[in-house]
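Dear colleague,

Following up on Tuesday's group meeting, I ran the structure prediction for the two-component complex that the binding team flagged. I've pasted the input sequences exactly as they went in, so you can double-check that nothing got truncated or mislabelled along the way. The structure tokens for the whole assembly follow below. Feel free to forward this to whoever is handling the docking comparison.

Inputs:
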Amino acid sequence: MEDVLILGIGGMLLFAIGIIVFVLFHQRRVIRYQLNLQELREEQQKQLLQAAIESEEKERKRIAGDLHDEIGGSLSTVRLYLLQASKKNSPEEIALTASNANKLLDDIIQKIRQLSHQLSPETLLDFGLQEALANLCRKISASGALAMSCHNDVPIPRFQPARELATYRIVQELTNNILKHAEASEISLKLSPLSQKIQIILEDNGKGFGQKEFEEMKHSPSGLGLKNIQSRIHILNASIIFTKKKSGKGTVIVIEVPIEPDNNGRS
Amino acid sequence: MWNHLASTDFVAILSYALPLVSYLVTIQRRQHDRSTRLFFLYLFLSAGFNTVNFFTGVYYINNLLIYTLQFTVEYYLLSWMFMHLLKKAIYQKLIRWMMLGYVALLALNIRRILSTNTFDSYDAAFVGFVIIIYCILFFHLQLSNLQVTFIYRTPWFWFITALLFFYSGCFLIFLSTDYIMYFNNSFSIGLWDLRNLLDIVKNIVITIGIFYLPGKYSWKTY
């Protein structure tokens, strides 16, 4: 009896020591795991930041190219017309050259307007996300590249302009990707209000792109556009889910953006 | 009057001076939340009860009822303390039920408790078992919600370690005391010596924890 008791007490003490040792070691392991997780998050943040910088640089180069090649070139031609006009003697010839210069200036004004619209869509600022997305649908359909239908009849509330712009950019980037990579002939965009958030469903009939591919591309050195989408999703505290259609033909993308009231009282 | 057991009892009582003096000396400079205050109240009362038991033992006065009172007071103080430490609703519910369970056990055991010839092994073992469970739950909660980088730099790690070690060692001693006391008294004295040793270890470990108690102005950085 005494021996059993002594063994039991010893066992209980070992049990207590075992728990304490386990707590100490397990805590160290958990801390190490948390540190690794933090490092991974920091690495991902770094990648997102890098993608944002690269994207900004790419956009700057594109604007610089547009300004130099199209507007710069057209302005040089206008200058040439004006120079010619100053050398002409007959009023008819001067009028013809001035008319050519005038037409070219109209083109330049149109191009600047387009460029300005690309930089910041006026419709978005004036009429909100719903109208801006409808406008985007009309433009893509009008281009003849593919048919894009827009189903956003239910009015959605306006929210902070910066958040509206970020949401617009996400949809814009996604439609760009569909145009470039999906080999689709149709896109459908549906915008609907949910409680405290809006839902955007983008569907195409292309070759299909699932969540797995999105996660892989997001972490690969390429996939700048997807990294930008992820970065915007993160900033908006939103969610994005890519699903391949069961038929294997096409993708369904569901984006949910929480609505936060802006300072002007718009909900 | 003064025997071998009394001398180990005396050393165990003296060991209470370590955490209590350390606590009192630094009391002005430390932050004390309710759970810390309850823990030190438990320690003060334990020291008091052990002193009373020591003197009654020396003068051969029956002190078995005082032991039951000591276990009851210690159990309720520790349960109250754990109520503040284990914030999860399910744990709080468990503590409340265990507090009621102890009352039920006392009621069922009342004849044995009031008897001057028997040591209340069941209630004491129940207290030991429940405190061990609370200590494990505390560590589980700490691990599932880590808020510090080094757990051993928190006072509660040391306080709970001390309680876990003491009650784990004492659980079988409490459970068997009543039986052993009558069949092998010398072995029973040996076991009580072991209990005193565990008490001394407990007090040393608690003293280590006191030095990790946050300072009153620890939020200031210079």
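The radius of gyration of chain A is 29 Å.

Cheers,
M.
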